[in-house]
Specification:
The structure holds two protein chains of two kinds. By secondary structure, chain A is mainly alpha-helical. Chain A has 16 helices and no strands. Chain A folds into two domains: 48 residues, no CATH class; 228 residues, Orthogonal Bundle (MetI-like fold). Helices cover 73% and strands 0% of the residues of chain A. Chain A is globular and about 75 Å long. Chain B is mainly α. Chain B has one domain: MetI-like (MetI-like fold, Orthogonal Bundle). Chain B contains 16 helices and two strands. In chain B, strands 1-2 form a two-stranded antiparallel sheet. Classes of the chains: A mainly alpha, B mainly alpha. Chains A and B meet through helix 1, helix 3, helix 5, helix 6 and helix 7 of A and helix 2, helix 5, helix 6, helix 7 and helix 9 of B.
Chain lengths: 310, 286
């Protein structure tokens, strides 16, 4: 991390610093003081609740009752015997990777379309990012209405176009409901994917490509040896972020289906809310949320590896 | 002759509309739900539930009934006020905590600085889905359950890591020499920070503030878990719960609430598009 200039910078001042104050002015002490408020806050509101949820998952805590005690791995054994939990695990992966693949397939052509200059480009870019900015809870209401069982405008359009023959129950049929929540999640997230892809595309300086061309590299070689190595870390990190946000989603699924019909759209967040808050079983709910963690840890390890390599 | 003409015409179309053609389906998909919200908000109920002909325009005169129900039959304005107050307070708290931390992590050399930066990055990835249950116990213990103060207290936990990370990037762009010359002139760390760094990174502070506000305004699960009284709800929570009574969805009012509720973020977003896109890519990629 340190480079020559920083070392010179650091050694240019010792006389002045020593003259002004003793240990209090030392960088270590100062550094600790400056970061302390933020990290104390995070320790109390992220680290502490995280460990608390591990303890809660091994307790019989319930909403509304102040006292609870340690029950060992009882919640976990109950959870492993619960078919809905396994369905939730499956759903979470289908929801996350289904959304992600479609986002990329839709986002890539969009990124290419935006990767040139034309009049009103900034305006168009602004329009396309709207779904990502508007609170998902509010825009999901529009989708719930468009997927309505009786007055779905999507059904109306598809039936007029003779794509379907009878009105589909978007939120009421098991397989279709998963598609519906994926559609909402794709709609909300593809602008982000496109912006990341676009950032990746513009990260390759034209001169580098020109230089490769002069050196005799063909289009395939230029893509393989020049574009891909530059773009890869950016895209991977953006992709991993996007995956984390889908995997830990709550509101999109909750507002469209609440996990139904027949639990076919429950993801970790919604099932944990259902058990932990609606059914009042905080211990069991905490156990469910903790299953997000191994997956998250895997993503973090991958991300840090890519960042380090960069 | 004709083939030359059509070819020329084709070339002209390609030149004038080429960049827009592939974008049009995207714009349609992005905007249609908002159009549908808008038209639903002002259609009479009978018109709303009449799908015999194309539903894309008014078949009867538009009405303000749904907006009236929203404003008079619910606590919509209170929710709006709650969201704005919580948003503003969270922005202030976030910046007060994030600015010194970002400065120290980007500038000072001390043992553990690298570890702390990584910890900051990791805490951004701990999702609210993982923390809402213990946090509900925590705010209950602190006596803040069912009040907007619970949200003011907890929301910086997701804005702070992101904003610190973002601000670190901005601090790094300030040349070290400016600060050092100020220190030689007798400024201490705090003075150098307030007089030299802060004025230079104002764009970064604005970006961080916009993000803190937007993230706060979008938050759902904490509000749903910590608050239950209607008067303490935030906008997205209130609109999505109080206009559904049993099996009855007040679609017109729901859509008008969703539209008006989205206005504050839409306005901020429209005025800060460049900051926003910069923050999005910087936050994700640095």
């Amino acid at each position: 991390m340190s480079n020559g200039r920083e070392l010179i910078g650091a050694s240019a001042l010792p006389a002045a610093r020593a003259a002004r104050g003793g240990w209090f002015q030392r960088e270590g002490v100062q550094g600790a003081l400056w970061v302390a408020p933020a990290f104390l806050y995070l320790a109390f509101f992220i680290a502490y609740p995280f460990f608390m949820s591990i303890y809660l998952s091994m307790s019989n805590a319930r909403v509304g009752s102040p006292e609870y005690h340690f029950v060992g791995v009882q919640n976990y054994t109950r959870l492993f015997a619960d078919p809905v939990f396994w369905q939730t695990v499956r759903n979470s992966f289908v929801f996350t990777f289904g959304s992600e693949i479609i986002r990329l397939l839709i986002g890539l052509p969009l990124a290419f379309a935006l990767n040139r200059s034309f009049k009103g480009k900034r305006f168009v870019q602004g329009l396309i990012l709207i779904p990502f900015v508007i609170p998902i809870a509010l825009s999901s209401l529009a989708w719930k209405w468009m997927f309505d069982s009786l007055y779905s405008v999507i059904n109306w359009m598809l039936m007029q176009a003779h794509v379907i023959e009878y009105p589909w129950q978007w939120l009421g049929e098991p397989g279709l409901a998963m598609w519906s929540v994926i559609i909402l999640n794709v709609w909300r997230g593809f602008p982000f994917s496109a912006v990341i892809l676009l950032a990746g595309l513009t990260a390759v300086p034209q001169e580098v490509i020109e230089a490769a061309k002069i050196d005799g590299a063909g289009p395939f070689q230029r893509f393989h040896y020049v574009v891909v190595p530059i773009v890869r870390p950016i895209l991977l990190v953006g992709l991993l972020y996007s995956i984390v946000f889908s995997f830990t989603d709550f509101s999109a699924v909750w507002l469209l289906t609440q996990g139904g019909p027949y639990n076919t759209t429950h993801v970790f967040g919604t099932y944990a809310y259902n058990i932990g808050i609606n059914a009042g079983d905080i211990g069991m709910g905490a156990a469910i949320t903790l299953f997000i963690f191994p997956f998250l840890a895997l993503i973090v390890v991958l991300m840090l590896r890519f960042l380090r390599r960069e | 002759m004709r083939s030359v003409d059509t070819r020329r015409l084709w070339r002209r179309i390609k030149r004038d509309y080429g960049p827009y053609l592939p974008l049009s389906p995207y714009i349609f998909v992005v905007l249609f739900p908002f159009y549908w919200m808008l038209i639903t908000a002002f259609k009479r109920d009978r018109d709303l539930y009449n799908l015999t002909t194309a539903p894309f325009w008014f078949k009867e005169a538009p009405t303000l009934d749904h907006v009236q129900l929203l404003l008079q039959g619910t606590l919509f304005l209170t929710w709006m006020k709650n969201s704005l107050v919580v948003g503003a307070l969270v922005v202030v708290i976030t910046l007060l905590l994030a600015l010194p931390a970002a400065y120290a992590l980007a500038r000072f050399k001390f043992r553990g600085a690298q570890t702390l930066s990584t910890a900051m990055f990791l805490s951004y990835l701990i999702p609210s889905t993982l923390l809402f249950l213990p946090l509900s116990q925590l705010v209950r213990g602190l006596g803040f359950i069912d009040s907007i103060w619970a949200l003011v207290l907890v929301y910086p936990s997701f804005t702070l890591p992101f904003c610190t990370w973002l601000l670190m990037g901005f601090v790094r762009t300030v040349p070290r020499e400016i600060e050092e010359s100020a220190q030689i002139d007798g400024c201490n760390r705090l003075q150098a920070f307030c007089l030299i760094i802060i004025p230079v990174i104002v764009p970064g502070i604005i970006t961080a503030g916009i993000f803190a506000f937007t993230l706060t305004y979008q938050e759902y699960i904490y509000a749903l878990t910590f608050v239950s009284a209607s008067a303490n709800k935030t906008i997205s929570y209130g609109v999505t719960t109080d206009l559904i009574r049993g099996d009855v969805f007040y679609w017109g009012s729901l859509m008008s609430g969703a539209l008006i509720g989205a206005v504050p973020v839409a306005v901020i977003y429209a005025f800060s598009l460049d900051h926003f896109i910069h923050g999005l890519t910087a936050g994700a990629l640095k």
